[in-house]
Amino acid sequence: xxxxxxxxxxxxxxxxxxxxxxxxxxxxxxxxxxxxxxxxxxxxxxxxxxxxxxxxxxxxxxxxxxxxxxxxxxxxxxxxxxxxxxxxxxxxxxxxxxxxxxxxxxxxxxxxxxxxxxxxxxxxxxxxxxxxxxxxxxxxxxxxxxxxxxxxxxxxxxxxxxxxxxxxxxxxxxxxxxxxxxxxxxxxxxxxxxxxxxxxxxxxxxxxxxxxxxxxxxxxxxxxxxxxxxxxxxxxxxxxxxxxxxxxxxxxxxxxxxxxxxxxxxxxxxxxxxxxxxxxxxxxxxxxxxxxxxxxxxxxxxxxxxxxxxxxxxxxxxxxxxxxxxxxxxxxxxxxxxxxxxxxxxxxxxxxxxxxxxxxxxxxxxxxxxxxxxxxxxxxxxxxxxxxx
Length: 389
Hints:
CATH architecture of the domain at 9-86: 3-Layer(aba) Sandwich
Strand order of the largest sheet: 3-1-2-4
Strand content: 5-15%
Structural class: alpha/beta
Order of helices and strands: HEEEHEHHHHHHHEEEHEHHEHHEH
Shape: globular
């Protein structure tokens, strides 16, 4: 297992110290890798969760632990010496057969991040030491997106971060590698959910309506832009949900809507209580190209049915992208509307859920009961017809 890496955001050094502990800045960078479930961090460190006694790979799709319960270790043996046992889901105690390929893809990802322009496929393959065809296939298997899609997402992320620092739009566009401001605006239309100027000002001028409603599984906050619903978050406390929205959009104009948006929120709450109808509501979905493909696949799963992460990956034609599918589910901010709760582990276990596994179980139970009730109704009517005088 390699003990040193430097793939963190902003060039953060993530190499562990010799005794398996990490300095504060390195620990913070490892936590960020854990939050992102970054597959490129696998083999670099493991983390243990004190409340479960289990240690995992950074990319493990299990429910994200609280930061205070997490310890980081340079290798599996250090975690086991501290009393943790290996996760049965991500199997961090087993060596990864694809480490050389992961290292090669990591070099290509670093080249994309460091380049002022998007490297060609030939340049990336050369950096990885592979043929173009083989590199393209391996890159997609490991990252869950094509090199072009990854480069597009990285460029947009760089553009967004630069805008967030207050850099003028034109300068930020060129710094991010866009050949013109018009190309940056075209990318921002779908990727940022707002104009570059508004993103530069922390969402200032962006009008976001929100409404909260009590549901059978806790409170829900529904937020919408002019394009549609951009967030549907579940929680135990109404005020905390509103505070989270304000933290995400500190400069946006947030308006509580007791009219049309509240009606949409009520529709979602009724669906949660009695999932016997569809939810055809306009959505403002923001994510990478691969995430969007996963979310579209989730919306095709009927209520009362489930799919495994592996089944979703196969349906997308990428059977080796199981972890990337799990990461896309974890990144979803549209509870119920993009039904990531209908994706479970291959062994039938519930898997992780952004808003808590118990909520996931409750949603699945209600949908299963609704499906059973719907299938039983025609049989009951038929029995009544047979016994009618």
